[in-house]
Amino acid sequence: MQTFTQFLAEMSVSPSLNQLLHTLTKTSKEISHAVQHGALAGVLGATEQENVQGETQKKLDVITNDMLKTTLAEDSTVKGIASEEEDDVVAANTDGEFLVSFDPLDGSSNIDINSLVGTIFSILPAKDGELTQQQFLQPGRNQVAAGYVLYGPSTMLTLTTGNGVFMFTLCPESNEFMLTESNVIIPADTKEFAINMSNQRFWQPAMQNYIDDLLKGDTGVRGKNFNMRWIAAMVGDVHRVLSRGGLFSYPTDTKNPAKPFKLRLMYEANPMALLIEQAQGKASTGYETILDIEPTEIHQRVAVILGSRNEVDACLKYHG
Ligand code: F6P
Ligand code: MN
User: Fold this and answer.
1) Does residue 228 sit in the same domain as residue 299?
2) Residue 127: inside a domain
3) Residues annotated as binding site for substrate?
4) Residue 158: what are its φ and ψ, rounded to 5°?
5) 271 CB less than 6 Å from ligand 1?
6) Residue 262, ligand 1, Cβ within 6 A
7) Largest separation between any pair of C-alpha atoms in the chain
8) Fructose-1-6-bisphosphatase class 1 C-terminal domain location, by residue (predicted)?
9) For position 93, which CATH number holds?
10) Considering 161, 181, 201, which residue would you say is the last residue of a domain?
11) Per-residue model confidence as pLDDT tens digits over 114-145
């Protein structure tokens, strides 16, 4: 079995990207450790603060954000950082080659029930000049690498550097990420979907009609029965889709008219879309390919429909 270090050497990843990926994995091991200690370390529960998106921050959101911010700022390859938990971009090293966007602890409401959470990251090339939000506003197609670390029964890293998708499992004895899945391919067809059904009445007609047909199963136009799963952490739901196929969606809804979309483009939708496309799946908003969106704001939100490509296409037909 290959270690992560051996894998990167074999993939001929540039020395600077190699350095950055090691910084990210080193920090994720420390996060894994903090998450595992849970109540023993007094890190569960909420703080009294809200993030820029008006969500109450969990203690672990703040702790993991600080861990990543500190280690990334010390990495000479990093020019700037954008995080779900930071209002604005954070400048790191003027000559850094990369911009790193991250969700330090996706699904953090799962923390208090000891369920799946993870760190999602996206790496973009930096541009010359001063670090501003503008630097980050590049389509997801520009990502140099993207991935996530899932803190579950085992801690797993899923990574793409634009050359396929690879999964690594953290060995508790050696504390090394070991390559356990190479060239992950998502089956084109599926009988499984993931969506928060409690929002059904707030969806657009296209999504309502599509899900209605899935629920009709073999008595409806789809002619087969579907199963449903919802982990409530995108990182867990996407990991299942990459592992055995499926369709995952957080679609447009009118529950809160001021917030028609839930998932964030820069550090949730884009990195996951790159992994999904690299595994031969598809990722769309319903009307636009996620990786082609020209961002206008670092914390912007988008509708997401991703997964097995034939099933995403089936869903897109309802969107016209
Ligand atoms: O980061 C947002 C997020 O927590 C995702 O990880 C997850 O897919 C979704 O929100 C869960 O939303 P809800 O609470 O509506 O089920
Ligand atoms: Mn998240």
Assistant:
1) yes
2) yes
3) 106-109, 196, 262
4) -120, 130
5) no
6) yes
7) 61
8) 186-319
9) 3.30.540.10
10) 181
11) 999 999 999 999 999 999 999 999 999 999 99
Ligand 1, atom 8, residue with closest C-alpha:
234
Query: Which of residues 149, 181, 213 is at a domain's end?
Result: 181
Q: Given this model, what pLDDT does residue 138 score? A: 98
Q: Tokens 């136009």 sit at which residue? A: 221
- Same domain? For 228 and 307 the reply is yes
How many residues make up the chain in this entry? 320
Q: Are residues 13 and 44 in the same domain?
A: yes
User: What is the model's pLDDT at position 265?
Assistant: 98
Q: Is 245 in the pocket of ligand 1 (CB under 6 A)?
A: no
| Beta-carbon neighbours within 5 Å of ion ligand 2 | 103, 106
CA distances from 300 to 104, 147, 207, 259, 270 (A): 17, 19, 21, 10, 11
What span, in angstroms and rounded, lies between the C-alpha atoms of 96 and 223? Answer: 53
Residue 41 has pLDDT above 80, yes or no: no
DSSP letter at 175? -
Cα(222) to ligand 2 centroid in Å equals 32
Q: How many domains does the chain have?
A: 2
Check whether residue 69 and residue 206 sit in a common domain.
Answer: no
106 in contact with ligand 1, CB cutoff 6 A: yes
Q: How far apart are the first and last CA of the chain?
A: 46
pLDDT tens for 165-215 read: 999 999 999 999 999 999 999 999 999 999 999 999 999 999 999 999 999
- Binding residues for Mg(2+), by number, are 84, 103, 105-106, 268
Domain encompassing residue 271: 192-318
Ligand 1 atom at shortest distance from the alpha carbon of 199: 15
The answer to whether residues 207 and 143 belong to one domain is no
Q: Is the CB of 3 under 6 A from ligand 1?
A: no
